[in-house]
Amino acid sequence: MNDLYARHRNVLPDWLALYYEDPLEITHGEGRHVWDARGNRYLDFFGGILTTMTAHALPEVTKAVSEQAGRIIHSSTLYLNRPMVELAERIAQLSQIPNARVFFTSSGTEANDTALLLATAHRGSNTVLAMRNSYHGRSFSAVGITGNRGWSPTALSPLQTLYVHGGVRTRGPYAHLNDAEFIAACVADLKDLLGHTRPSAALIAEPIQGVGGFTSPPDGLYAAFRDVLQEHGILWIADEVQTGWGRTGEHFWGWQAHARGGPPDIVTFAKGIGNGMSIGGVVARAEIMNCLDANSISTFGGTQVTMAAGLANLTYLLEHDLQGNARRVGGLLIERLRSAAQLPGVREVRGRGLMIGIELVRPGTDEADPQAASAVLEAAREGGLLIGKGGGHNTSALRIAPPLSLTVAEAEEGADVLERALRSTQ
Fold first, then answer.
1. DSSP 20
2. Three-state secondary-structure class, residue 33
3. Given 41, 343, 384, 417, which residue has the most CB atoms within 10 angstroms?
4. pLDDT in tens, 146-164
5. How many Å apart are CA 388 and CA 368, to the nearest integer?
6. Pairing state of beta strands 266-269 and 235-239?
């Protein structure tokens, strides 16, 4: 056990998860690569859990942070804040929500917490619809709506949560149906649920479930849900903490795969916009955002140095068409992985853009194989590649989400390492 690991275990909670049998200390990064304390270089296919969206040590972001830190780092929302207003203006326009208002937080958890506060206050109800296999954060209210037992440590909650089918296409009672039948069955389930319960405040859903293993429904499911929700006045919250900013390649926001009825009532975001800086936030129509009848502030949400980073990062993303790069390079990567992963222990390779999941099972069965996922994680590290893992109660998936500036050569390199890691653990 190295000294830093021993100190970590002595002073930090037992439930604070670490990857790898010999945990890794990352000391610096550049582009799509990071280095550990021993000088080993890794191709990063996880980006600090999808936070390093553009590149490690991106000069434009580093320069913006340094220049802003030299002026003022923080003042709170009690004072006018030019970088916060400028970033809010850009996000409001990109959100496609009419008459949008933006509130900044310091994390995705806090963003979802705020969205739940707004929805329940606006609707006068503490009943929330959520998806099975979902994950929405670490706070008391967020774990209460998380449909993934591995990330929900308590059944206590300030909310009454009702779970809906549909977030996982290839497992569950409707998996055998075609896409149209799947959507119809999930809509029928939603209608039945609403007929038996008190009025709900909102449905919160990740367009692609992140911690759940990068699972998703057929395109159009949430549009069909929204037709039902609107009949009851129920709000739609799109949790875009992992899917936002073009990561899926085909769309800037994940909800746009379900856009028939227009944008969601509320969108939450975080992770990639700050490129590692602590930025989260909520976008909502003005009448929803302004429904609170008490004062509020955010001490660290929208602080000047993080807003400067977000502005520089978003500008770089748009000017260099990183959404287009995610579509092109991600498409090549997922096809390469599908062709390389014709192994008995690989059940499915799924995803969009640079958000790819590989579900692992025990060979000859349909049972999750979390030991195999851990083994592949270790083997990939030995080969110089960092990836993630996730999945619900009966799934085990590898999660692949590199910075959106990934090159074709790096995609090929990572696919080679991952294929060898998969084969070595069969």
1. S
2. strand
3. 417
4. 888 887 888 788 999 999 9
5. 16
6. parallel
